[in-house]
Amino acid sequence: MTRIFSGIKPTGHLTLGNYLGALRRWADEDQHRAESLFCVVDLHALTVEHDPARVRRLSRQAATLLLAAGLDPATCTVFVQSHVDEHARLSYVLECVATDGEMRRMIQYKEKSARAQVAGQSVRLSLLTYPALMAADILAYGADEVPVGEDQTQHVELTRDLAVRFNQRYGRTFVVPRATRPAVAARVMDLQDPLDKMGKSHEATGGIVYLLDEPDAVARKVRRAVTDSEPGVSYDRAARPGVANLLEILAACTGEEPEKLADAYDGSGALKAAVAEAVVELLRPLRARHAELSADPEYVDGVLRDGAARARTLARPRVDAAYAAIGLLPA
Ligand code: TYM
Q1: Which of 11, 15, 88, 320 is deepest in the core (most CB within 10 A)?
Q2: In terms of CATH architecture, what is 184-295?
Q3: Which fold would CATH assign to domain 3-181+297-326?
Q4: What is the pLDDT of residues 242-286, one digit of tens each?
Q5: CA 195 to ligand 1 center in whole angstroms
Q6: What is the location of CATH 1.10.240.10 in the chain?
Q7: Residue 158 C-alpha to ligand 1 middle, in angstroms?
Q8: How does pLDDT run across 147-160, given as a tens digit for each residue?
Q9: Rounded to the nearest whole angstrom, what is the distance from the C-alpha of residue 166 to the centroid of ligand 1?
């Protein structure tokens, strides 16, 4: 049976980008067609300046949102990365397979290290080695598919390279995974800056729709979205990024094509009104379910405990095999 692994990092409140690019598909499709594991990757949240209490809070909130989005613990495994030692165990081995050059080529490393430097912060070594840990997340489980948004493609490509290299040098140990992406909205852009990704850890929040935003706030952010001064509505990502982003969000909400939707609106005001309504309706059940689940933290803790136990059993033998293959004496 196909195996799927994906993860989400608790560095901020989850956004519409996370939902449309990843989470919705995990819940609506992936968990039903494959043996799936979904992980709150908290170790990754320590790669940038962080407040320990906030990371704890966001980890719990992310796990609750995964369940609220429809991940069913009877169908898939939901857990927290730091509860399963195999991730960190395997990460070190993969650092011994990866090169310094390939880590430095990662776009996210370049962007985030530049941002840290501008803010006068030091760049943590773990920001550089992050992709080795992400590769470990995936390879420990023998995942065939990794459902992600567009921004993670490069990391999954690197994971493939590391798996192939390890297998060639030390014997076949890892499944070589591939990234899968949603048909539309694989890269939801910031409503205030449609040339930049809608990112949960960005500082300016006016262009970011958070999954737990009040409906009024969602509508306001969409109505204030930056578009352009051209009349009418047309779908052209390069020339009209703001309008294209709104069309893609609407397409993701309605299941229609962005090009077709463009013909249905004669101005950006009408388009924004339709997008605002569609997004508010899309998020309504998620918010309601999140409120219910938040009232029962013990249930969420239980799901995470069981999930970690299952994840450990799956990962352990493969990580042990990797240790043996690379030359470490069995314990
Ligand atoms: P993270 O936490 O940044 O994002 C979680 C998922 O949401 C997708 N996503 C988006 N999709 C569309 N538009 C956007 N604006 C947008 N923003 C985020 C991401 O592509 C991702 O699928 N490194 C990963 C977490 C990770 C991981 C893994 C993922 C760690 N280990 C192993 C898969 C497999 C990350 O930072 O995702």
Answers
A1: 15
A2: Orthogonal Bundle (1.10)
A3: Rossmann fold (3.40.50)
A4: 999 999 999 999 999 999 999 999 999 999 999 999 999 999 999
A5: 18
A6: 184-295
A7: 15
A8: 999 999 999 999 99
A9: 25
Q: DSSP assignment, residue 15?
A: B
Measuring from atom 20 of ligand 1, which residue has the nearest CA? 149
| Residues with C-beta less than 6 Å from any ligand 1 atom | 5-9, 17-18, 20-22, 41, 44, 134, 137-138, 146, 148-149, 151-152, 155, 186-188, 197-198
Strand, helix or coil for residue 40: strand
The model's pTM: 0.97
**DSSP calls for 208-248:** --BTTS-HHHHHHHHHT----S-SS----TTT-HHHHHHHH
Contact 62, 29 (CB under 8 A): no
pLDDT by residue (tens digit) across 4-32?
A: 999 999 999 999 999 999 999 999 999 99
d(CA 232, CA 271): 10
